[in-house]
## 1
Amino acid sequence: MIGVSCSAYAYNLHADAQVTKKRDYSHRKFIDRNLVFSRENYESGRWWTMITHSVVHFHAVHLALNMLALASFGPRSVAMFGLPSTAVMWLGSSVAGSWAYLTGNEYKARQVKSGVPPKEINIFGLRLPRGQPSVSGPEWKALGSSSSVLGLLAAVACAQPRTPIYMFPIPVAIPMSSAILGFGLGSAMAWYQDLLPMLGHTAHLGGLAFGVLWYVLRLRRIGRTPRF
């Protein structure tokens, strides 16, 4: 998947170059219609974009972070659960992330349309104000392998919850289960409070949820005896 993602990124750079040099939008349109997940593609029946978006990245940093995580936990997932189950987790987490992103955007759109003012969040007496609900409009797009990578990471964390990992910006290693739980809660809070709306918080949550669900339903027995 690293090779596929890097190839897709190279093609994206080529599409940008064609637009800049020749004003040729054919490659960009192909990417937007067939590789990137969007509401338009979903409503037009291009269901495969719920999967293909997981190999498309528009920024080098985005690509590098996801590929670094995949290189770290992908081989471990294959060693523990086998290649077929890892492939199912990748595809399933991608679809789950797309569905969650779609559902989350529809919910936010209804909030904006209703004009209901945002409510504060009260956590153990601590009041956290919410920002104004925002969506990217009818042209929003989702891309990147974050949901798929997080699905793999969630399954590995279920099998080895005490394994220490480093998670930015925490300077010390923490148990993998704590990292996943913290990331999930942070994503949910950020989505609910409309923080960093350019990030796919709900897509991340969808990928995490599928990884945990797949582990509980199919991989739990295998995960107890990792093969590495």
## 2
Amino acid sequence: MQTPLGPIGVFNHFPFQSTTANISGSKEDIIVGAKKGYAVLKQSTGKLRYIKKVWDERDGPGKEESAGRYWVGTMNDPKVQEPTDEGVLFRLDPDLTLNRMIENVTIPNGIGWSADDRIMFFVDSPTKDIIAFDFDAATGAISNRRVLFHVEDEEGVPDGFAIDSTGHIWVAIFGGGKILRVSPQGLLVGEIRLPTRMVSCPGFVGNDLLITSAEEPESDKHPYSAECAGSLFRVHVGVKGLPSNEFGMS
């Protein structure tokens, strides 16, 4: 599915933010994957209160699943050193029990679950793979790791993704300037091209896909990409995303 540039709306430029999630039953507080661990942020004051200091490096994207658990990946801060496979994908349960679910992660990015809650998907960007696991919604356990889809793009790597109501994965190709639509069977069935290379993450709002992008590191070499780098794009795709979940903190 090629999307002409005309209908793509460009909004604003946004700085990097930590991953956040709503807390079930709270309109005031949200939970944050912050610099040193999990924290609760009071929205009215901006006050941050750590509930689990877990890491002293950069956090990666996070996601809540149907049972109210909050998964967050960590990685080395690239401003301090080159990322290595020291990262971990953590799972925080509603009772604040912390679990190390996947180790030896380099750059954790997309994470999500199938509509029937039987499969978990995960991206460690340098591998260029979307990984699938069998998922036990009752316990939060994962097993049977396998590759669902491998990105063949020579320049780009998979980044964040969103899953639509039909079970298809819309994954950003960071450095490749596009979104790929991958079927539940691991087949490439669609593509959206963007006017910047550093496409980072899509998300559904109704039947539209909102797509974030990052700074262009080689602006002299790719001036077209630098012009729209850091922008938020909107594309009408005609399908809705799966409902979002909340962290069920006890």
